[in-house]
Structure formats: C-alpha cells, structure tokens
Amino acid sequence: QVELVESGGGLVQAGGSLRLSCAASGSILRLNTMGWYRQAPGKQREFVARITGVGLTTYGDSVQGRFTISKDNGKNTIYLQMNSLQPEDTGVYSCMIITSIDYWGQGTQVTVSS
C-alpha cells in the first residue's frame, strides 16, 4: 500500500511561482517513476511532468521551460517548481507513482489570478 500527500498549492497572481510537494509513504522503491498531473474544471486530466527513479524528467508541452520536477530520495518526496504561472495553469494538481498499480494523491488546488 502506498500513500501520497500533496502540499504547496494556493492562490498566486499571474507571473508568480509556487512549489508543490508530494510525500510518498508505504512500499516505495526509489526506482519508481513519479509524476504530476493536473485537471482544470470541465477539462480532462493533463500530464504535467514525471521523473524516473534515476532522475530522467519529462514535461508536458504547456509547462516545458516553466516547471521543474525534482526528487529527494531520502525523503521519498518529489517537488514541482512552477514559475511564470498563468491563469491557464489553474487546476487541481495530483501526484502519482507507478508501481504494480498506479497510486494517486488527493490533489492540491492551484489558482492563478490574472
């Protein structure tokens, strides 16, 4: 069993920054891939970023160059540094981990005002 807890969401003005955290507990292997997805009201869930166990990163087209995903293996935690935020970045951000099945966190709300 795996538990993921996100934190760091909030309200920010356009152009601002936020840093999200996702702490994982349970049967975690450091080589598991973890990632972030987001969902805006009325829209489908969208891939944001992921990081593999060896630190390889991939980003969605809409966040490339503005967001950075990182991890702290010692803390079983991943982070999402979000810069140059825009109103279209508004949504619920959820982290996930790939094991034999995928686990998801509850999500944290990010709201960017114009």
What is the residue-mean pLDDT, rounded to a whole number? Answer: 94
What does the largest sheet look like?
A: 7 strands, mixed
Low-pLDDT residue intervals, each spanning 5 or more residues:
none
Number of DSSP-assigned strands? 11
Helix count? 0
Rounded Rg: 13 Å
Which shape, going by the Cα principal axes?
Answer: globular
Mind explaining what this structure looks like?
The structure is a single chain. The protein is mainly beta and 114 residues long. The chain is 0% helix and 55% strand. It contains no helices and eleven strands. The protein is globular and about 40 Å long. The mean pLDDT is 94.
Question: Strands, helices and their partners?
Answer:
Blueprint: E1 2-7, E2 10-13, E3 18-26, E4 34-39, E5 46-51, E6 57-59, E7 67-72, E8 77-82, E9 91-98, E10 102-104, E11 108-113
Quick synopsis:
This protein is mainly β. The protein contains no helices and eleven strands.
Q: Which labels suit this protein?
A:
single chain, 114 residues, mainly beta, 7-stranded mixed sheet, 4-stranded antiparallel sheet, 11 strands
